[in-house]
Amino acid sequence: MNLELLIQLLVNGFIVGTLYGVVAMSFVLIYKATQVVNFAQGEFLLIGAWVCWWLLTKYQLPFYIGMPITLAFMFAFGVALQVVVLRPLIGEPIISVIMVTIGLSTVFQALMKWIFGTNLQPFPQVFAIQTVTIAGLQIQSVYLLSLVVSFAMMAGMAWFFRATKHGLAMRATASDQQVAQSLGISVENVFAMAWAISAVVSAVAGVVVAVVNGVSAGLSAYGIKVFPAAILGGLDSIGGAVVGGVIIGLLENLAHFVDSQYLHWGNLYEIAPFYVMIIILMIKPYGLFGTRDIERV
Amino acid sequence: MTSLVPAGDFRTTYAADTTIFPTVTSRNCAIAGIGVLCLAPFVLSQYWLSILIQIGYFAIAAVGLNILVGFTGQISIGHAAFFGFGAFTSAYLSTKIGIPAFFAIPLSGIATALVGLVFGLPAARLKGLYLAIATLAAQYILLDFFSRAEWFTGGIAPASAEPFTLFGYVLRSDRQYFYVVLAYLIVSYLLVTNLIRTRDGRALVAIRDHYLSAEMMGINLTKYRTLSFGLAAFFAGIGGALYAHYAQVVSNEGFGIERSIVFLAMVIIGGVGAVMGTLMGTAFMVLLPEVMEWISASLRGGAIDRALALNNNIAFLREIAIGLVIVLFLIFEPDGLAHRWRQIKAYWKLYPFSH
């Protein structure tokens, strides 16, 4: 048994897992606030990363200017998406809304390929990449950075929901829309805000992944990995999404370890989360922290 | 049965209410339509014939998805994987085991239905969107299985399927195979149309409209949700098997999530819950890439072509078109082409005094 490889993979898994957690968190945010299952979550990462890449390479903007512009753009994009596409569908059956987000995901994915091509583009070097040795493990500084950014975003999200007025309004809307409306909360604003925040947070995750691995259409795969993470954590629990993301990240790398050392099936890494998802749906469909009001029929 | 529709709703029996053909003329038109289609292989070129065959096998799979989406109100994002499973099963049964295609096609439909139930059972017991997520997993797991199981699919090398034989006579050309697809299409659409008229079909619709009321009226939700998911997978398998024996080579490509989204688009564009609409929706989605190909070919060399680099990016444009069509139809025409068709008919019924 190759212990060193195992530990290295588990560290990687933890780092990737926190990113899954961040994306799953923004996915759950939309689900909780607006009851929409967003199949276009991965495209938020993709668009954010491409926009930032474009600003940094085409206009040679420094990162500390390019990044805020990207985030502002994603905020506007999230609001626009909600107002133009999803607002007309309020009150429609849930499957219509799901299908719209599937359609959107196809559109954005192909649009990004059309504009930016299909090749992997290296991200301009934003930070000097060094290798840090922690407890005998070689870790690249960008990975540490990604970890820090992920935790910062989780903490920011927690602060937003607990300490700000808008966060409180969002929580109220999530728990009961009619009551929230009667208390003077503009549910429309809350919906738009949820999409905007989700787009911004996902874009940050997208840029982080892009800094580490470069930008390509493959980024939208994160949007698919969100489902195992969110189902595992509980579809309506933001904390659960983070935990689910970390577990899925660890599990992926563990599957990779078992596969490369013992089984030699190849590709187990990519498919393991979906097996876990089926099992979770079978035995504990509300996930680890989700509300237990899902009715069995 | 009367030959004209009365100007009001005067039906007095349930039989009259659920009849497929309200008038003699509509029945005769349907028969004439099938007759015209039977003549198609003698008139049409190879290209058009292959498009018609494509519409045929996709429409069978799409009508299966419409049972799920339209009648039961569930959603599947893994339909293409089941379509692919049907194709591989039929290829396997016909080449490796030696079952003639005539029997292999229905058998692979049944096999696909069983596989569908494996994924559908956990999710069909849950409310709402869980089936969507389970089928997403099915999509990826089945695709992974196709690339892994070399004994079954040939792995990287494509699997081959025997041509369709009927009483020892081999149907090799498209012209002959067209009739096979047509026969399956007619039978499938008749089955699905009649399904809604039965007790089981009404149970499915009741679940879609209000699952709690349906349950209180004694409808077993688990049974009917699972049944509808099995039926959807069954028709996907039949469609896939027909595809396998048409192409005679089944490779791992074309069963991805993009194809599943196209199947959803067929159902949405045709009209959710509209059986004949599914046929229109399928025709629309099969013709859409062809039309885009013609447009880009006719613009070749022009200014628009140079500005957008159309020919290099036609694949992406096609994807964008598919996505846009889904979004726009859901926002502006949620009842699909079937609804538009009914409106056109209603307009001409009272022409020129339509108001």
Provide tags for this entry.
A: 297 residues; mainly alpha; two-stranded antiparallel sheet; 74% helix; B: 355 residues; two-stranded antiparallel ribbon; 16 helices; 4 strands
Shape of chain B: globular
Shape of chain A: globular
The N- to C-terminal Cα distance of chain B equals: 28 Å
**What's the total number of strands of chain B?**
4
Portion in helices of chain A: over 70%
* Cα distance spanning the termini of chain A: 45 Å
User: Structural class, from secondary structure content of chain B?
Assistant: mainly alpha
- Could you spell the SSE succession of chain A in H and E letters? HHHHEEHHHHHHH
SS element count, helices of chain B = 16
Gyration radius of chain B, rounded: 21 Å
Runs of chain A in which pLDDT lies below 50 for 5 or more consecutive residues are: none
Strand order of the biggest β-sheet of chain A: 1-2
How would you sum up this structure, described in words?
The complex is a heterodimer of chains A (297) and B (355). Chain A is an all-alpha fold. In chain A, 74% of the residues lie in helices and 3% in strands. A two-stranded antiparallel sheet of chain A has the order 1-2. Chain A starts with a helix and ends in a 14-residue tail after the last helix. Chain B is built from 16 helices and four strands. Chain B has helices at residues 14-17, 24-43, 46-71, 79-97, 101-124, 130-148, 150-153, 174-197, 199-209, 211-216, 221-247, 257-270, 275-298, 303-308, 314-332, 336-349; strands at residues 159-160, 164-166, 169-171, 249-250. Chain B has a two-stranded antiparallel sheet with strand order 1-4. Chain B has a two-stranded antiparallel sheet with strand order 2-3. In chain B, strand 2 and strand 3 (169-171) form a beta hairpin. The radius of gyration of chain B is 21 Å and the shape is globular. The two termini of chain B are 28 Å apart. Chains A and B meet through helix 4, helix 9 and helix 11 of A and helix 5, helix 6, helix 11, helix 12 and helix 15 of B.
